[in-house]
Amino acid sequence: MKRKHLKYGGVSFTNNVPPEQINDFVRNLPDEDKDSLFEVVTKLRDAGLITLFDGDNTTIDRDQEQFQIPNNGDGQ
């Protein structure tokens, strides 16, 4: 399966099951297990529904890159 990235977490992953099965799993999680994206992703990984790839993380949101200001004092 094709690798994907979590838009707001930057973690690379692949689905081990069809998206519909992942959606059903998340939909049926108790509310307290859906407090954060990190918790949901951890539950998905622990259930074997996705595979995470350590060391292939990014915090850059390519859709918003044009709006980002370098943090080196140039924008002041």
Helix and strand pattern:
EEHHE
Bulk shape: globular
Strand order in the sheet with the most strands: 1-2-3
Helix content: 25-40%
Number of strands: 3
The quaternary state of the protein chains shown equals: single chain
- Biggest sheet layout: 3 strands, antiparallel
Estimate the strand proportion.
15-25%
How many distinct helices? 2
Low-confidence stretches: none
What is the distance, rounded to the nearest whole angstrom, between the alpha carbons of the first and last residues?
45 Å
* Gyration radius from CA atoms, angstroms: 16 Å
Structural class: alpha+beta
Overall pLDDT score: 78
Please write out the topology.
Blueprint lengths: L3 E2 L5 E5 L3 H9 L9 H10 L3 E8 L19
Antiparallel strand pairs: 1-2, 2-3
Describe this structure as you would to a colleague.
- This protein has helices spanning 19-27, 37-46; strands at residues 4-5, 11-15, 50-57.
- By secondary structure, the protein is α+β, with helices and mostly antiparallel strands.
- It has a domain at 4-54.
- The chain has a three-stranded antiparallel beta sheet with strand order 1-2-3, covered by helices on one side.
- The longest helix has 10 residues, at 37-46.
- 4% of the residues are buried.
- The model has no long low-confidence stretch (mean pLDDT 78).
